[in-house]
Known about the structure:
CATH class: Mainly Alpha
Strand order of the largest sheet: 1-2-3-4
Largest sheet: 4 strands, antiparallel
Structural class: alpha+beta
CATH superfamily: Cytochrome-c3 Hydrogenase, chain B
Distance between the termini: 27 Å
Strand content: 5-15%
Number of helices: 15
CATH topology: Cytochrome-c3 Hydrogenase, chain B
CATH architecture: Orthogonal Bundle
Number of domains: 1
Number of strands: 9
Amino acid sequence: MLKEDSESANGNKWVELNMGPQHPSMHGVLRLRVKLDGEIVKECEPIIGYLHRNAEKLCELDYYCDATVYFDRMDYVGAMNMEVGYLEAAEKLLDIPPPERAQWIRLIMAELNRIAAHLVWTGAFGLDLGMLTPFFYCFAEREKIQRIFVDISGSRQQLNYMSIGGVYQDINDKIIYDIEQFIDQFPKKLEDINKTFIKNDIFISRNKGMGILEPEVALDYGVTGPMLRASGIDYDIRKKEPYLMYDKVNFDVPVSYKKDNLARYLVRIEEMRQSIKILKQAIKKIPDGPYFNPKAKKPLMIRLRGDGDVYARTESSKGEFGVYLVGDGGVKPYRVRVRSPTFKNLSVAPVLVKDQMIADLIAILGTFDLVFGEIDR
């Protein structure tokens, strides 16, 4: 939708264009108010709030054990990592740590979900640039992970698998076998997917040197995750402040110094390779023992009281996911506050798209990996 011309500071005429919230290349219900000089973007204002569901306030109205369902619906393509983020905070506040077996299971599920989330992004990014074939390859591989999630949790997307003090269901031999089968065959499939991108001259020309994000700008705006690491900053919560059993596995943090769209793509591809490396180690290290804390034998009936405040940070597929909880001594949290990585990452969009072609705006925005359930909450 075009609006009347508006004037820039120097008197030039700019055209104001509304993109979204139903635009086919918007990742979720994002609206952009863009001012154009011909086809050059001069100003860009992201407008959010079309999916607001008040998740944080809803968490304050329910028992601690009930909040995981709301976190599942934040980054709905990375629900396992959302659950880990919340439970890291809740278990600190309630003093009910999960046993070692449960932590290994959580780590495995988090890394499987990291791969699944990156596959959704990779396929969708290809679609943004007119590439249909990689989308089907990506979703075929993601489906194998979704089947594992169905076997272990009974659900495909809003999983609600992890509970305070552990997990709802133990991992069995069939699930372990399915995971091993996946991690054996996926590296070859990933290379096939990668080749469809990097051997495509149009893909390279549209992304190489585009959307340069300088490291100091990224830090100023609070950018984290693959976007930050693609700008040359080695920052990953799994290494800097290990949680679960990440300090017991060997893996590398992919970093690029190219700072462009292509770097953000390549970092995510390498992250999937590293997730496979983590999974190969973790699947062999799962110890025997309980999969829940005895204090949490009936997870849905937990009425533990929390007092004080805690903050826990984890590394989701999008970046640093933080959960701040305040307890007032009752069986429900007094305050719940989330640090959404994609909310922070989106804030840098006006800087990256300024003075770029409007067609390149779509490509640049595609590298953000936006999920609006997490941004609007």
